[in-house]
Amino acid sequence: MFTYIQIIDTDTEVFKGYVYYQFLDDALSMTLIRGMRKLHHIVIPFADITDLIVDKLYGEDRINFIYNGKKYSIINTGYGESKYFEDHLLNATNLQV
User: Fold this and answer.
1) What is the reported pLDDT for 79?
2) Are the beta carbons of 86 and 76 closer than 8 angstroms?
3) Model-level pTM?
4) Is the Cβ–Cβ distance between 17 and 32 less than 8 Å?
């Protein structure tokens, strides 16, 4: 599935754009894309996700977590994928928010 993501590095470098993601057995696989170009592929083990928070940004759902010193924010773009992402991520990490 595709969703909008913001990734903030420790030195405030920011990526904003779309990501293709899928849930694997023990990890979240994401490919950052810009237009038709694949920029980077990331595999995030569920066990390494920390600080998982579900909140609102301007009234829309947002899912935040930390992995490898970077903050990942999944922002609802209106197609319902944020609820899908939230449900599957919470289930995969066995966390309650």
Assistant:
1) 65
2) no
3) 0.82
4) yes
